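User: Run a structure prediction on this.
Assistant: Running it now.
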Amino acid sequence: MSDCKTCGKPLTVEIEIDLDEEDDEYDQASFSENVVPDSVELQCGCHFHWQCLLDAYEITQCPGCSSNILGQASSGTEQILCNVNNEGGLQEAFDILPILKEESYLKAFPEERRCRAFLEFCAEGDVGAMLDLINGQGDEDFSANGNGNGSAKPIDVLRYQDSLGSMSTGLHLAIENGREEAAWLLLFLASSLEAKHFPEDVLQAAETLGAKREEQTGRVDIRIMEDGAHRTAENLAEQLGGKWDEWIHSERLKPILDGILPVV
């Protein structure tokens, strides 16, 4: 196996194995088996560690041999195909361009790293991680990537929109991925929807999780925010139907500006 073109080290990485001391499925030998493949092979034949490639990425050229690595899919969109081999196995013809673009963007705007992580949590429906990030837990992880230097203007994480993609808010992504718990949490934290419209179990869950609702006066109600296709979260829910039909019927997603329904 080739070495990494950037650092010259073998294309492996050590991973932490978190095993319960009483877990009898693993014997002592398992604790030494913590080295896994970590290889990205570009079409030019150069190999890199995943992180080394992200750190050295140049828009259209291989950072190792300067070959053009930008291709075009049958749809006409740009792509960079590679073979990725890691602990999850081998993925051939994997388009790494979206990830490289995002990493390049975050190098230029590191203050948005935690916001993009928040969008991922909304899409996954991980309400615990959403709240941890909002409350500042784990901020050291983002500081290590250039955030937290105090020089960037604070960003409203709750109302952040995906500037690299469809301009979706977390509410758009929660609805798109069928994450009702995440959608309820976002309405609780970033809308003016009155408490009487929340089911009792949702309010109890918010209290258990430590979610604190702040005064919304003067703040943008997340329900009025549109994605790149000019859709509010309500518009998207109408398109998707299914579990969101009840949400539409209840009008809890109805965009409200300063307490007045917008004129359509």
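DSSP finds ten helices and eight strands in the chain.
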